[in-house]
Design goal:
The chain contains 8 helices and 16 strands. By secondary structure, the protein is α+β, with helices and mostly antiparallel strands. A hairpin with a 7-residue loop joins β14 and β15 (340-348). α3 crosses α5 (96-104). Bound molecules: calcium ion (2 copies). One calcium ion binds at residues 140-141, 146-147, 199-201. Residues 110-229, 241-374 form the C2 domain.
Amino acid sequence: MANGTTSGTTDAPSSPSNSTVTSTTQPSFIESLIDKIPLPRWALIAIVIAVGLVLLLLLICIIKCCCCRKKRKKKEKAVDMTSINGPSTTKRLVQPDLEDIECGNEEEEKRGRLQYSLEYDFRSQEMKVGVKQAADLKAMDSGGTSDPYVIVYLTSDIRKKYETKVYRKTLNPVFNESFIFHIPQGDVAENTLVMQVYDFNRFSKHDIIGEMRLPLGDVDLQHVMEQWHELTAASKIEQEHLGEICISLRYVPSTSKLTVVILEAKKLKRMDPNGLSDPYVKVQLILNKKKWKKKKTSVKKNTLSPYFNEAFIFDVPFHLIQNIDLVISVWDSDKVTKDDQIGKLFLGCRATGNQLRHWSDMLANARRPVAQWHNLQPVEDIDKTLGLKTRFKLPLPGS
Ligand SMILES: [Ca+2]
Ligand SMILES: [Ca+2]
């Protein structure tokens, strides 16, 4: 220990002579510094390497983080691009980050609440729907507000829609408006009341904030009800209820006779201003995608549940029965304007579901009439499936 200290003191006086060298060459200064630290040289080198490694790791981490942020930004931009085709351009410009979050948990997202009232008058068969107020609506515009209004309709007639006034820049609008629906008591239970809250936009498509659906079968109509309902994400636009039709089919292979009996229809869509229709039914046979034979029932005036019980007999040889489509279409007769198609369906080997089942039941039970109810489908859908144009070519004489 004593030796160590003396060598230290003897080194110190010699340093001034060295100082002239240190001013020109750095290593000797560092060496002197290292000498001053009371640690062995190998330990110092180890520490320097360790510190260097830590710094390197830190640098790698920083670079990685920066890259990630850039990537995320790019992703946000990508989401933004897709939303250009979406409902609102203002929404996209204003809150791209929020939209990004929405993609992940749409179900948990709060859309707000709606207070409504419901009252049914059994004498006048009228339902009074009151749109009271909304609270905590989701903000759709810049500045964190919306311009809400409410659309009200029943699923039995989606063409008849009422709407409230628009309330500008608020998430808690008080509407206090009521709407009357004429609806027979027997039809109430199968109906659903739909209220959709929209955000008005002057220059772009209006955005749906949320909706509530109330199946009226669950509602006690004896009492006036008033309550709050949580808004949910809008479901896909429902298929309009067009009506149902009961048909009997019978095929006798030995005589090649196909008998189609149009029995009755019910819950047909209202086509006329008086809330009724004048239905009749067309029965068509299509052979290899071409119109073959056609017949129609009489017109039943002012009714949504006509009773026809009219039979049509077609001559269809057994070798052709697999190649034909039987198309049933229900029409509303109009005196002044062109008749409208209410709905349609087709049976045959190309059909699906209920219609195919009925057709195969008929083939399996030769000679026996088989009756079944069918839901009418949208005309365009059936025409598309059949691959036919709405208007058929007129048949040539004798064909
Ligand atoms: Ca708006
Ligand atoms: Ca009519």
